[in-house]
Write a structure and sequence with these properties.
It is a single chain. This protein is mainly alpha-helical. It has a domain at 3-80: Orthogonal Bundle (Arc Repressor Mutant, subunit A), CATH 1.10.10.10. It has four helices and two strands. Strands 1-2 form a two-stranded antiparallel sheet. Helix 1 crosses helix 2 (18-25), helix 1 crosses helix 3 (29-43) and helix 2 packs across helix 3 (29-43). The N and C termini lie far apart (74 Å).
């Protein structure tokens, strides 16, 4: 299952309100709903019971929520474990690519002003 789709489902399940979850994720509500519906098609069962007054998780949705949270937690742990360790070989800064100024000589690239 796609990582972003799992995050979207978990947010929708926590808020139990698609508009609030979409706002928290920074995405449009129709896109979030379409993502949830696509996930339901892939899984073969509904995750949410959406009535006129409220949105609730189905029993299958509650089980999937626990599994999705576990998968997100594992991926976060593996991301931390695979992060580059501090230290290692230092790389020299290349700077601006100019030679250092030498006292008494003209600066490279600048001409003297004539009188």
């Amino acid at each position: 299952m796609d990582h972003s789709a799992l995050k979207q489902f978990v947010a929708a399940a926590q808020y139990l309100h698609f508009a609030h979850a979409a706002r928290a994720l920074g995405m449009p509500r129709p896109e979030l709903i379409a993502s949830i519906r696509y996930m339901e098609e892939q899984l073969g069962y509904e995750l949410f019971e959406s009535g006129a007054s409220s949105t609730r998780l189905t029993p299958e949705g509650e089980v999937f929520l626990v599994d999705a949270e576990r998968q997100l937690e594992q991926s976060a742990k593996s991301a931390v474990a695979s992060a580059a360790k501090p230290g290692g070989k230092a790389k020299a800064s290349k700077g601006k690519g100019r030679a250092p100024a030498i006292k008494g000589e003209r600066k490279p690239g600048r001409k003297r002003q004539g009188r």
